[in-house]
UniProtKB/TrEMBL annotation:
Chain ranges passing through the membrane: 35-52, 59-77, 83-100, 107-123, 135-155
Source organism: Thalassorhabdus alkalitolerans
The LiaI-LiaF-like transmembrane region domain, residue ranges: 7-47
InterPro entries: LiaI-LiaF-like_TM1
Entry protein name: LiaI-LiaF-like domain-containing protein
Keyword Membrane attributed: yes
Transmembrane found in the keyword field: yes
Keywords: Membrane, Transmembrane, Transmembrane helix
Pfam families: LiaI-LiaF-like_TM1
Leader sequence residues: none
């Protein structure tokens, strides 16, 4: 398999399958003829390119695939959560996928994003348990915590990884 031709090849195959679905009115073709399917095709192309070569396309491919699946699930499954906490959760899973392939990077960031997403889902219950005063302070200052954590990843985490 040609490493350079993987991305455009998967894009062409995905686009062809999309048009075949539309042309022959196969089951579920109306539901799949939506914009999340385009994200899914592009994500598959990135992921396939990242898996056959040593470039860093696994993360964007995983994010696009997971977002596409999320948006499709919103239209297919009534009980699927439509909450902002889902986005950091999906990004965290994409980081973990990247770590599983590279074994170098993504585990720490993935853990932070998964905890952020999971915390968002259970925030009301956690705040109830913590008390109103602590909950109010956390709701006011948690974006600053994310800002500090982001600066840590930019300025210190890379230096620590390079010194190993």
């Amino acid at each position: 398999m040609s490493k350079k031709g993987t991305f455009p090849g998967v894009l062409l195959i995905g686009t062809a399958l999309l048009f075949i679905l539309d042309e022959f009115q196969l089951p579920f073709s109306n539901q799949l003829m939506q914009w999340p399917t385009v994200l899914l095709i592009i994500g598959l192309a990135f992921l396939c390119q990242g898996l056959v070569s040593n470039d860093n396309n696994i993360f964007p491919g995983s994010v696009l695939i997971l977002l596409a699946l999320h948006f499709h699930a919103l239209s297919f499954i009534d009980a699927w959560p439509d909450y902002w906490g889902m986005y950091p959760l999906l990004i965290g899973v994409a980081f973990v996928f990247t770590y599983m392939k590279t074994r170098k990077e993504g585990l720490a960031a993935g853990t932070v994003f998964i905890l952020l997403g999971a915390g968002a889902f259970f925030a009301d219950e956690l705040f109830r348990l913590a008390g109103t005063e602590l909950a109010g302070a956390f709701q006011t200052f948690w974006p600053f915590l994310l800002l500090i954590l982001g600066m840590y990843f930019i300025f210190f985490h890379n230096k620590k990884a390079k010194s190993r």
